[in-house]
Design goal:
Structural class: alpha+beta
Strand content: 15-25%
Number of helices: 26
Number of domains: 3
Largest sheet: 10 strands, mixed
Number of strands: 22
């Protein structure tokens, strides 16, 4: 221990003698370490240990799939699906079902407000191993039809709407114009799903959980906790057995067999991460590359210092210092520098990590709670150890390979050790340039992909459109006639708002993430034994929907005001669905339905152009069909206004129109359609912004590394360059000679970077849209930027070399 303390004090003295080296090293490591901690802390809060779930290990999401139907490989479950999962007591320690619901909260004083909530089974909080901070959770007796008027509040709802009142438990509040008694308040550590403001009992009749007629009505989610020792593979094996049993019970011509239906489980963290898993993983790799570049820089600086102290180290070896001790000192010096970089980098991460959340989708970022304990601290320790080793391994290697006897003989001025040192530093710079090129080209390709996506046609005109959502409480609007009357009255008021050129109401809108899918039958077309039947996206729309969105009607007519309750049910299909199920035919005049035995049959009255529903990247293979909203009213609806003026200016008028029909109905999710389309690109913008930032940081570090190598090379070759100039070499030739050294290193690095990109082309391809991995323009720009920066870094030492005075250089020992 005393030896280590002695070496530690010795290293501190050496660093005090070289404050510039110490400062540059600590700042360089702080940038690399800080970026890694910031990105990992966000990744941890989103993917590994999602915010709002304190005990995520062992939790799984229960899902269903139809492998024969497009876009249905990972969907919600039905009540019988959940019943089958809950019966697996040997597999699942506990299980719960949940169903989204909107609740119009009417405070005693103030305007009504929508609170997104979830209906859950009695054991919901037990699955997550959490207890309410105040009060209690639901009992099985409360999870019964007619007894479900209890509510548990989310912590933020308790703070926002009830002023953090500790006596709120027992209070009665009005939700959807019905009284609910508050029985509990959850603590700040729990909040899943992340948009939940409250929870109420699901209260399904017990028989529904084993009602085979409800098997394919996937209208809920499911979560479960695996028993200790049970793996995800065992859980899926159980669900596969239940799938096979259910298909066999339906007979050989079952719908489940034809559609390749099945149940499965997936890690809840994987389910929550969803589309963010790939971009966040990519960013972790990117910041890891930045840290490698930073470590290579520090290793190069340490190598230069070791070369400069060559004679001193040789004397120490001659006096009996073991090489093991020299290696230990090199690694200890790296550890000291890493510790300084770690402290400063942690501060950088704490400041920058919250800023990263602004570039995540707001529905997710608003609920993410960053923490710096547990996995993040473990990551910090791993980073510290790796930096210490990587920064010290090259100097340590140099100290074991150096020819100390030669150094003593030659006075430490030149020799094989200097050549070896210079080659090692050059190799580090080449690696830095190669990694920087990968990041530069990657950011360029992603920028190209983003631009390509922004040019994609959505199929509708988003300019001048304002949208919002409403939810009708079923306790008041309990009949279709009441819902239809409300929508008719509201539509008239929306169209009469001054400045509004058109208006419509629908069950969902493009890019609002509220798409529904359903199978249907075609009249007169029987299904084959292995045919699951037609399937597509479904949307309920009022008259004026296609005109408001400016979606072209390609054939027939659109839905009009005569398509109301009591008239012939009508439908429209888009051109994708028409080509898929009526190839070479005209579907107008034909009929579709959902129950061939009972009806009703919907007459297809028109064909419309396909519209991208949720993503600009979607290939559009899934078609949509549209039914009349007045003929098939739904409790949740989206409102749409078109105007030639600023869409945002109609927000107040829109809310007033709704209140004029029913003052208890609030509007929510108010956005322009341009905002909705733009938000679908947030994930890509997040990656592009950060990757470009990290590429710039990597390029800066690589330039510093090259500057150090060339500067050190010029210092070593001062005598040689002086001789050249004394013999008549022009200063321009000396300048060119040094610049060529930098260009050679840059060229080797560029070749290595391109080869690495080719090797990783599959990874790049999965992240790109409309751009090839070998896109010439992106690579030319990246190479051009790289050459400008690295040659600029080489120019300063080259200029210094060209200004050497020959006589002074020749006198230098």
């Amino acid at each position: 221990m005393s030896t280590l303390l002695q070496e530690f004090r010795y290293i501190l003295r050496q660093l005090r003698k070289s404050p510039g080296f110490a400062l540059v090293s600590v700042l360089t490591l702080a940038l690399g370490i800080g970026a890694n901690i910031a990105v990992f802390s966000v990744t941890n809060a989103v993917l590994l240990n999602p915010s709002g779930i304190p005990h995520a290990a062992g939790l799984v999401a229960l899902r269903a799939r139809y492998l024969s139907l497009a876009d249905l490989s990972n969907i919600g479950i039905s009540a019988p699906d959940f019943g089958d999962a809950a019966d697996g007591k040997d597999i699942f320690q506990s299980a719960a079902a949940l169903q989204a619901g909107n609740y119009n909260y009417s405070p005693a004083n103030g305007n009504p407000e929508l609170l997104p909530g979830f209906k859950v089974t009695a054991g919901y909080f037990d699955v997550f191993q959490v207890r309410p901070m105040l009060g209690r959770g639901f009992t099985p007796e409360e999870d019964q039809p007619g007894a479900e008027h209890e509510v548990v509040l989310a912590h933020r709802t308790w703070q926002k709407n009830f002023g953090s009142d500790p006596n709120v438990v027992g209070r009665t509040i009005i939700l959807n114009q019905q009284p609910y008694r508050i029985i509990g308040v959850m603590g700040p550590e729990f909040g899943w799903p992340n948009q939940a403001e409250l929870w109420v009992p699901l209260a399904l009749p017990p028989g529904r959980y084993h009602d085979q007629d409800d098997r394919y009505n996937e209208n809920m989610g499911g979560v479960a906790r695996l028993r200790p020792g049970i793996t995800l593979q065992q859980a899926n094996a159980y669900l596969e057995r239940k799938t096979e049993e259910n298909i066999r019970s339906e007979g050989s011509k079952s719908y489940g067999q034809a559609s390749r239906w099945g149940m499965f489980a997936m890690s809840l963290t994987e389910f929550i991460g969803g589309p963010l898993r790939k971009p966040l993983t990519m960013l972790l790799i990117a910041v890891g590359m930045v840290l490698l570049i930073a470590c290579a820089n520090i290793a190069g600086l340490q190598l230069a210092r070791a070369s400069a102290r060559e004679r001193e180290l040789a004397v120490r070896v001659a006096l009996g210092a073991s090489r093991q001790r020299l290696i230990r000192q090199a690694l200890t010096e790296s550890a000291v520098l890493t510790a300084g970089g770690l402290v400063l980098g942690f501060a950088v991460a704490v400041i920058t990590a919250p800023a990263l959340l602004h570039y995540l989708p707001q529905t997710l970022a608003s609920q993410v709670q960053l923490s710096y304990h547990g996995p993040v601290l473990l990551f910090v320790v791993i980073i510290a150890v790796l930096c210490s080793v990587v920064c010290g391994v090259v100097p340590s290697w140099y100290r074991t390979k150096a020819g100390w006897f030669d150094a003593l003989q030659e006075g430490g001025r030149s020799g094989t050790t200097t050549v070896a040192s210079q080659r090692a530093r050059s190799s580090l710079v080449v690696a830095q340039i190669a990694l920087s090129l990968l990041l530069l080209a990657g950011s360029g390709l992603l920028i190209g992909s983003l631009e390509a996506l922004q040019r994609v046609e959505t199929g509708f005109d988003a300019r001048g459109l304002l949208s919002a959502s409403i939810s009708l409480p079923k306790t008041v609007y309990d009949k279709e006639e009441k819902q239809a009357a409300f929508y008719q009255a509201l539509l008239e008021r929306l169209r009469n708002i001054p400045g509004v050129s058109n208006a419509a109401i629908a069950s969902g809108l493009p890019f609002d993430n509220n798409n529904g899918f359903a199978s249907f039958s075609i009249k007169g077309r029987p299904l084959g034994p292995s045919d699951p039947g037609p399937h597509g996206g479904i949307r309920l729309v009022s008259s004026g929907y296609f005109e408001t969105l400016r979606i072209p009607v390609l054939m027939g007519r659109s839905i009009n005001d005569q398509d109301r309750q009591g008239s012939q049910p009508v439908a429209l299909v888009d051109d994708v669905l028409a080509r898929q199920y009526w190839p070479g035919q005209n579907p107008v005049g034909q009929y579709i339905g959902f129950d061939p035995k009972k009806g009703p049959w919907y007459e297809i009255v028109g064909i419309v152009k396909h519209v991208r529903s949720s993503s600009l990247e979607a290939d559009g293979n899934e078609g949509f069909y549209f039914l009349s909203l007045p003929q098939n009213p739904d409790g949740n609806a989206s409102l749409l206004l078109r105007s030639d003026r600023s869409a945002q200016s109609f927000k107040t008028a829109l809310a007033s129109a709704v209140r004029s029909v029913d003052s208890s109905i609030p509007i929510y999710d108010v956005k322009t359609m341009e905002q909705r389309v733009d938000e679908s690109l947030i994930g890509r913008r997040f990656v592009v912004l950060l990757l470009t930032t990290f590429a710039g940081l990597a390029l800066l570090l690589a330039a510093l590394g090259l500057y150090g190598v060339i500067s050190y090379s010029v210092r070593l070759r001062t005598r040689e360059l002086g001789v050249r100039m004394a013999l008549g070499a022009q200063r321009s030739k000396v300048l060119q000679l040094v610049l060529l050294q930098g260009a050679r290193l840059a060229g080797i690095g560029i070749v290595c970077g391109v080869l690495a990109a080719i090797a990783l082309s599959r990874v790049f391809t999965s992240l790109l849209f409309g751009v090839s991995v070998l896109n010439g323009m992106a690579w030319l720009i990246a190479v051009g930027i790289l050459l400008i920066v690295v040659l600029g870094a080489a120019f300063l030492p080259a200029q210094r070399a060209a200004s050497i005075e020959p006589m002074q250089a020749l006198r230098t020992e």
